[in-house]
Amino acid sequence: MERGRRAIIAASAGVMGTLIARMRNAVGGQREGTGSDSSAADLAPGAHASDFQLHHRGTSTSTVALGTTAKSGSSLVVCQFGDLTKLHAPVDNKGNAFTLLLSSGYHGGAWKPFGMRMYATMAAAGGPAHAVSMAKDTATDESTLIAIEVRGGATLRDKSVVTRAAAGPGAPSVSGSIVTTGPALLLALWGGDGDVDLTDQRATPEKGWTTIESRFLGRTAYIQAALAWKRVDAAGPQACAWTPAQRQGAILAMAAIQA
């Protein structure tokens, strides 16, 4: 009887041990998943700024002051417009190196050699008084510089640039498509090609997008641009439609950044 009782106790202990191990594995897996979701949840636009320099009123160096950026765990995306033969790659005061992502002239060769370039640095170093700048060979040329910090962003998932011909006022221009594999912060860039005769150069992204930097003057010699963002949680193709107030074509760039 005593041997039988000991055998039953041992068997019960073995079953209990197996159950406890399974519970620990389940909890451990749950925590790992939660950590991944938490990282994705951190994706958000951080510091951002822009510098629009007018024709004959530019300076040899265009600079944007971002203020305080995260010391680590963020990415920086920089967009520049101007005479591409005279613009230099962006630099900052935190020692980051910027990689060229996209480059494009305007549709049909308009305003050549003017156009747009998009740069990025992933896993950027940041901190207080963060500034990004670009040098120009001709100081007084018009130029546009936009910089944005993407908090929690470590991976450039996809990118695209297309040009669209003018389709009339109120007619949307749709960007190229990019594909995400999960939660992502999307950036959409508009660079209109309307000339100084336009009284209203505004362009608006479709519902769900938030314009974060822009300048639309009308009847002014400068380089108009706008940057918008959107957070998505599901994997799949993404695009952005911009609607101009008056007839004009545009450079349309997109980038998807994930944790």
Q: Kindly, what is the distance between the CA atoms of the first and last residues, rounded to a whole number of angstroms?
A: 62 Å
- Widest beta sheet: strand line-up: 1-8-3-6-5
Runs in which pLDDT lies below 50 for 5 or more consecutive residues are 1-38
Looking at how many chains there are and whether they match, the oligomeric state comes to single chain
Shape: globular
Number of domains: 2
Question: Key terms for this structure?
Answer:
259 residues; alpha+beta; 2 domains; five-stranded antiparallel β-sheet; 18 strands; 15% helix; 46% strand; globular
Descriptive account of the structure:
By secondary structure, the chain is α+β, with helices and mostly antiparallel strands. It has two domains: 1-41; 42-258, no CATH class. The protein has one helix and 18 strands. The strands form five sheets. It has a five-stranded antiparallel sheet, with no helix packed on it. The chain has a five-stranded antiparallel sheet with strand order 9-18-12-15-14, with no helix packed on it. The longest helix has 40 residues, at 2-41. The chain is globular, with a radius of gyration of 25 Å. Mean pLDDT is 88; it is low at 1-38.
